[in-house]
């Protein structure tokens, strides 16, 4: 049986009968609903719900989107993503290819992990790759990345949005970073993206938190300098500068330990700049301690850029109480009309 959360008429943002594409809440809610549409697409496949029995279509049709393509994993053939095209009634727009009022022309959305037997094994494998900083080496990411490249190449970066939740947010973040390094800055909505580190944000004493983060930055920057000494070619590489102009919308919940560290991450960057230690943090944030240690001691090749390297972001923090981790990590929270949100813009060059 379908759960209530899968049924748009019971759980979707029915209050959004008229979308103002310049309204941040509306944009975030639509993006989150399109991601939920991918979750339900996969659940429809698993439960063999077709035609009038399918529950996924209302999640995009309510907002005048059309499903253009499903993104299929090459290992277990699950649906992990979707490409949507905005097709409003003719009375809402002209036939121009350009989005003149803030709406997207296409949205590429990626779901997160589904804890059902038909897809969990493969999803969990991808989660492990995130922990190892190896998502970029997976075939699922390459399939998603190729879809992004093709869409940007066909219709232009200004007509494409990215959206993802949890594992899907990691996919969207990595895809967005990849095209940003080529000068294409996509509108992106990243819901509860994983940030792999010690849960420093859960420490209540602000001075202790700040001290731990400063120590971590100094150690990481020192190891990064040592690694550069062993690999001179890396001195000219600066992914931070290449990414600084991209400002995705990052949505996190402080009660979700998988993504809450982003709150401290950006605040720490701000404080390091204020005390004149911005250069240390700029270097430290481009690396992971584990990868740097292995590089310095000569174990293996140079580590890949950390997934969480994100110089700039529109950070939206949901301060509304959460009953449990499932609610704090869930996608449904992001279209509720009664959210208590704190929004901050962080831009670092």
UniProtKB/TrEMBL annotation:
Q: What is this protein called?
A: Fungal lipase-type domain-containing protein
InterPro entries hit by this protein:
AB_hydrolase_fold (IPR029058), Fungal_lipase-type (IPR002921)
Q: Which residues form the Fungal lipase-type domain?
A: 146-185
Biological process annotations from GO: lipid metabolic process
As one GO molecular function, the record gives:
hydrolase activity
One of the Pfam families matching this protein, by short name: Lipase_3
**UniProt entry tagged with the keyword Hydrolase:** yes
Source organism (scientific name) = Gossypium laxum
